[in-house]
DNA sequence: TATTGTTATACTCTATAACTATA
DNA sequence: TATAGTTATAGAGTATAACAATA
């Protein structure tokens, strides 16, 4: 615990954390993202690729356009990511017989295997990042973060890479 | 709160948050960073520039090399950032009389004024990001994050942009 | 020789916009 | 005419490495 501090006169100032909570969030979040990127590099993947694979695993057969919309990015960006993943043999663009304009994206067997390995890495990552906290603290942290995420309108499971800021 | 959920038989599975804590950290952290970037764009600044200005304000006269080391980036990257800030009139490269190889970086008056405005924006940002939490919850979140940051060896006040991962 | 800063260069990521094919 | 996907292109950001000035 780091909450006990001398509660003297300058209490208001002492209570104020040296850097704001929002800064800490950004700092620790970026660190977590960087460590995760490091871990999955052993699979030859970058975080965006893992995100795509995860979304397809969750809903097989979805189109590239639907990925672009959910991620809030432009369709041409999906093309590059899907190209690479297809090149690695992790997913396949299947033709949709009823509407041949779009691609029904599917994980290959190898893609499924990679996802299984990825889940192991993610669990280890979680443990490494939260090493300072016991189980109750982790649960508490999760609920606080979930409350912020919900209030801020974040889509569960979607990392806001550095999306285009809404035009001013 | 989002912690109450049907506690039935698959309890172990149900207790496990839908996405891990580390993912939530990265997600909320990236969101906070993006909202901050949006806010300071009204000052014509990007987050990296604010970071440089803040470090110089905290210790005037420091060299570009010391910034590069503390941030964990390559010196040539500092050149570009300092170039832009100097071009905007927010900081000055003063010659160090005792060792003319390095620059003693100083904020200009205008740079100081911009930093004052920035602090106002940061406070508003903090409030907006933490809107879902009351004061006690914010303090608790801060202490949990600070514990993680300390255990992970993060330098206080230094955002790990996306630094070069340590060579494997 | 070592150090500080700079420049030149190449590479990656990403958005924009024009294009193809289907509907 | 509208939609899914693709390609071509350009811009920003960043690391590498060679270089100049100073110690």
TrEMBL record, chains A, B:
<dbReference type="GO" id="GO:0003700">
    <property type="term" value="F:DNA-binding transcription factor activity"/>
</dbReference>
<dbReference type="InterPro" id="IPR036390">
    <property type="entry name" value="WH_DNA-bd_sf"/>
</dbReference>
<dbReference type="InterPro" id="IPR000835">
    <property type="entry name" value="HTH_MarR-typ"/>
</dbReference>
<dbReference type="Pfam" id="PF12802">
    <property type="entry name" value="MarR_2"/>
</dbReference>
<dbReference type="InterPro" id="IPR039422">
    <property type="entry name" value="MarR/SlyA-like"/>
</dbReference>
<feature type="domain" description="HTH marR-type">
    <location>
        <begin position="18"/>
        <end position="150"/>
    </location>
</feature>
<protein>
    <submittedName>
        <fullName>Transcriptional regulator</fullName>
    </submittedName>
</protein>
<dbReference type="GO" id="GO:0006950">
    <property type="term" value="P:response to stress"/>
</dbReference>
<dbReference type="InterPro" id="IPR036388">
    <property type="entry name" value="WH-like_DNA-bd_sf"/>
</dbReference>
